[in-house]
Specification:
Layout: H1 20-34, H2 42-63, E1 70-72, H3 82-86, H4 97-103, H5 113-117, E2 123-124, H6 143-160, H7 168-174, H8 186-196, E3 199-200, H9 217-220, E4 224-226, E5 234-237, H10 242-250, E6 255-261, H11 263-266, E7 268-273, E8 282-294, E9 297-303, E10 315-319, E11 331-334
Parallel strand pairs: 7-10
Antiparallel strand pairs: 1-7, 2-8, 3-4, 5-11, 6-8, 8-9, 9-10
Helix pairs in contact: 6-7, 6-8
Length: about 325
């Protein structure tokens, strides 16, 4: 993420009305304290405050709804306009449908209710010793690289006992470098890691907020922290295979998924997210790290890559079982060496 330094050299005198305007102003001033941003001019100040006021109205209306299943809150996205928000989403993504057909995998033999009842009611790896701290992709559509990496990191630690952070930057630089921050598909990235002989550690190949480098030896000649298995390295599930994902999670396998994103999702705070997509939202790759039920609503525990300041420590509970915003459409994981 391109970090902005809080340099307010020009303060705008705002005439505050009664009631709501005062509340908005107080919220704005609190926001500037909690989320320092760089404001160099009056025009910039006006733009950021206008963006904030739009999101603030959405948050206030949503949180006042007694039937809401989740709460919203201000975060780093509150002062961004729609074009800036799109930078965090995918421009390129290929469905796993063709991958499933290519691999011919059938991970679930029986998906009836009796199968689901045999599974644990709750699985949650958010605090597992093999789960790396939530990372920050910054203003770059590299979310697929982060989802792909989270799956490999967790699988590698579970199998080999190595809780090591792996390099998203290797993927951004070396796989489809022409896309730069346009992103790609996690299954494409896993294939590139196989060709590269593994994935480098973050220490050897640190993330630079998506600032890409030219493809070259540096992409390959870095110490590898993990390798994918020689046999059946990629596991694809058929679309809508809720039970298949649950089964993989019980086997300590994280699952990469892709979702449609709304403004409300970008300002999610806690609870079970249940807002449908309209069909024209941008796509975002994330990782399923658990499942459960909260107040009668089935959910996936989802790991995001928008820093720990997003949602509940970087995680979101996302409604399960109805393919909300495509969450049960593009499902894949890996086996490691």
């Amino acid at each position: 993420m391109v970090k902005l330094v809080f340099v307010i050299s020009v303060l705008v005198v705002v005439t505050i009305g009664a009631g709501g305007a005062e509340d908005v102003q107080a919220a704005w001033e609190k926001y500037l304290t909690e989320f320092p941003i760089g404001i160099q001019t009056k025009a910039e100040y006006g733009k950021r405050k206008s963006n904030f006021e739009r999101i603030h109205a959405i948050i206030e209306e949503h949180n006042a709804d007694e039937n809401a299943t989740y709460t919203m809150a201000h975060n780093q996205f509150s002062v961004m306009d729609s074009e800036e928000r799109k930078k965090y989403l995918l421009k390129n993504f290929a469905s796993t449908r063709s991958l499933y057909e290519e691999l011919g995998l059938e991970t679930v033999e029986d998906t009836d209710d009796s199968t689901m009842r045999q599974l644990p009611p709750t699985i949650d790896y958010r605090k597992d010793k093999c789960m790396q701290p939530v990372k920050d992709q910054g203003g770059c559509g590299s979310c697929s690289a982060f989802a792909a990496t989270a799956v490999v990191e967790f699988a590698n630690c579970q199998k080999n006992g190595n809780a090591v952070s792996l390099s998203e930057q290797q993927i951004v630089d070396c796989d489809f470098p022409d896309r730069e921050c346009g992103g790609g598909s996690y299954h494409e990235y896993w294939k590139s890691l196989i060709k590269a002989g593994g994935q480098a550690t973050s220490a050897a190949y640190p993330y630079t907020s998506g600032d890409t480098k030219k493809r070259g030896p540096a992409c390959l000649n870095k110490p590898k922290g993990a390798k994918l298995a020689a046999r059946n390295p990629i596991v694809a599930l058929r679309e809508g295979d809720e039970v298949g994902v649950m089964k993989l999670l019980t086997k300590k396998k994280l699952v990469a998924v892709c979702i449609g994103v709304t403004d409300k999702f970008m300002n999610y705070r806690t609870g079970v997210y249940t807002t449908p997509c309209k069909g024209d939202e941008g796509l975002h790759a994330v990782t399923a790290v658990g499942y459960g039920t909260y107040k009668g609503i089935k959910y996936w525990a989802i790991r995001n890559s928008w820093s720990a300041k997003y949602g509940n420590g970087g995680y979101v509970l996302f409604q399960r079982g109805i393919n909300l915003c495509g969450v049960e459409r593009d499902l894949a994981t890996v086996n490691v060496a």
